[in-house]
């Protein structure tokens, strides 16, 4: 059905907050374009990107079928910065071609046979078109009504036929899928995610990518006192998250020995926070090497004893870099729903031997005093230890 009155299949993208940018807009658009191109790069056909006013059109090689438009839409559906993805038909800039395409678009649809209510919604990004938007709505709507006998409902239509007149062509489509929203990855700089194998940190990573941060992932494994399971999990999580930014990197620090020293320092109740501070100090050193400007964690206020206000304060005190906690105000059920939607929940729920189980005190401190923590750190020589740990960093490369 490719070469019918419908014209050529293509994909039409609506930009999100990028359109609010004033002087920086071009920078954001360029970044978004690069991310879109990267997301479709390994498809086995060429995708031609055209920036239009406020939208981006993705054209396919001549004669392409709808499966190609589907494949492209699936990829760009994960790219932050887009609010809508439409599988559209690209039609000649001529009213009768548009009408024909709209008629063809509704043929063979189950809901049309059922007699759904409908409306035509036209918009002109090129005002030189011979018909105004309202004239287009009426004339195409009238034809569709004649042919299919569908009731028009301008307020609450079950089916919307969209017509968008552009510079060189007209796009005709129904429906669409919501995009990720947010800002293009890279436009907010770079961050380092502290990535456990749990449910929260992958969601935190997603949230910050969606605000334009390109993120690296840092995982602390209990090696040599645990198996490599937690690394495989972190790896699988990073792979699942890679669709949102591409070129993701996973870094692993073997942390078991450092944990043993913390345990040996005897302050059982402070062990968890002392360990978290050492992770943060190490992460700060890694961030410096990677030129990342922020650390990101999956903390949510009050979720566990290490995430009380006092303990969060004690963690912030350990480093100079800002610690971003995008989940701070979310409930566990909300975090889980998002984890399910972005495809990380199943992986997070796999069993593993987290490094943190090595130090599970009978009763964890909920209001750690910074002075006490600093005392432990002096004995450990924590600053030096953090530099050493950062030096033992290993990269786990993502394979295709
Ligand atoms: P998550 O589900 O992300 O594991 P959690 O509810 O289990 O979170 P904690 O174990 O207290 O919470 O960890 C809080 C945050 O500390 C995590 O979200 C993560 O950012 C960081 N973190 C914890 N363990 C590790 C680890 N082994 N490697 C890297 N970061 C970690
Ligand atoms: Mg955890």
UniProtKB/TrEMBL annotation:
It catalyses: [ThiI sulfur-carrier protein]-S-sulfanyl-L-cysteine + a uridine in tRNA + 2 reduced [2Fe-2S]-[ferredoxin] + ATP + H(+) = [ThiI sulfur-carrier protein]-L-cysteine + a 4-thiouridine in tRNA + 2 oxidized [2Fe-2S]-[ferredoxin] + AMP + diphosphate; [ThiS sulfur-carrier protein]-C-terminal Gly-Gly-AMP + S-sulfanyl-L-cysteinyl-[cysteine desulfurase] + AH2 = [ThiS sulfur-carrier protein]-C-terminal-Gly-aminoethanethioate + L-cysteinyl-[cysteine desulfurase] + A + AMP + 2 H(+). It is found in: Cytoplasm. Pathway: Cofactor biosynthesis; thiamine diphosphate biosynthesis. One of its GO terms (molecular function) is CCA tRNA nucleotidyltransferase activity. CDD domains: PPase_ThiI, THUMP_ThiI. PROSITE patterns: THUMP. Pfam families: ThiI, ThiI_fer, THUMP. InterPro entries: Rossmann-like_a/b/a_fold, ThiI_AANH, ThiI_fer, ThiI_N, THUMP_dom, THUMP_ThiI, tRNA_STrfase, tRNA_sulfurtransferase_ThiI. One of its GO terms (biological process) is thiamine biosynthetic process. Keywords: ATP-binding, Cytoplasm, Nucleotide-binding, RNA-binding, Thiamine biosynthesis, Transferase, tRNA-binding. It comes from the Bacteria. Residues 70-176 form the THUMP domain. Gene3D superfamilies: 3.30.2130.30, HUPs. One of its GO terms (cellular component) is cytosol. Belongs to the ThiI family. Catalyzes the ATP-dependent transfer of a sulfur to tRNA to produce 4-thiouridine in position 8 of tRNAs, which functions as a near-UV photosensor. Also catalyzes the transfer of sulfur to the sulfur carrier protein ThiS, forming ThiS-thiocarboxylate. This is a step in the synthesis of thiazole, in the thiamine biosynthesis pathway. The sulfur is donated as persulfide by IscS. HAMAP family: ThiI. This is Probable tRNA sulfurtransferase.
């Amino acid at each position: 059905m490719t070469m019918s009155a419908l014209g050529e299949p293509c994909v039409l993208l609506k930009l999100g907050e990028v359109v609010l940018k004033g002087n920086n807009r071009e920078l954001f658009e360029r970044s978004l374009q690069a991310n879109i191109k990267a997301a479709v790069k390994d498809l086995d056909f060429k995708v031609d990107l055209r920036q239009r006013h406020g939208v981006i059109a993705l054209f396919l090689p001549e004669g392409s079928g709808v499966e190609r438009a589907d494949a492209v839409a699936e990829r760009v559906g994960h790219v932050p910065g887009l609010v809508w993805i439409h599988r559209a038909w690209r039609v000649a800039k001529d009213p009768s071609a548009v009408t024909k395409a709209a008629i063809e678009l509704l043929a063979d649809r189950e809901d049309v046979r059922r007699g759904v209510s409908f409306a035509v919604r036209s918009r002109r990004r090129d005002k030189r078109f011979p018909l105004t938007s309202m004239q287009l709505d009426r004339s195409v709507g009238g034809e569709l009504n004649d042919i299919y006998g569908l009731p028009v409902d301008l307020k609450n239509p079950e089916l919307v036929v969209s017509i968008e007149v552009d510079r060189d062509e007209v796009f005709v489509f129904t429906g669409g899928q919501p995009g990720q929203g947010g800002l293009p990855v890279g436009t907010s700089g770079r961050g380092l995610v502290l990535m456990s194998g749990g449910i929260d940190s992958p969601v935190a990573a997603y949230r910050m990518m969606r605000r334009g941060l390109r993120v690296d992932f840092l995982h602390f494994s209990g090696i040599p006192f645990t198996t490599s399971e937690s690394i495989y999990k972190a790896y699988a999580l990073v792979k699942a998250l890679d669709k949102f930014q591409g070129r993701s990197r996973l870094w692993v620090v073997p942390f078991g020995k450092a944990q043993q020293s913390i345990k040996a320092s005897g302050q059982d109740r402070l062990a968890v926070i002392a360990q978290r501070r050492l992770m943060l100090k190490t992460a700060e050193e890694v961030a410096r090497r990677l030129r990342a400007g922020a650390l990101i964690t999956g903390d949510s206020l009050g979720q566990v004893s290490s995430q009380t206000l006092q303990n969060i304060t004690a963690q912030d005190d350990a480093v100079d870099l800002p610690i971003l906690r995008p989940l701070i105000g979310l409930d566990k059920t909300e975090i889980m729903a998002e984890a399910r939607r972005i495809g990380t929940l199943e992986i997070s729920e796999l069993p593993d031997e987290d490094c943190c189980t090595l130090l599970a005190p009978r009763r964890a401190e909920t209001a750690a005093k910074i002075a006490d923590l600093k005392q432990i750190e002096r004995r450990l020589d924590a600053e030096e230890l953090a530099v050493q740990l950062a030096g033992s960093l290993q990269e786990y490369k993502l394979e295709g």
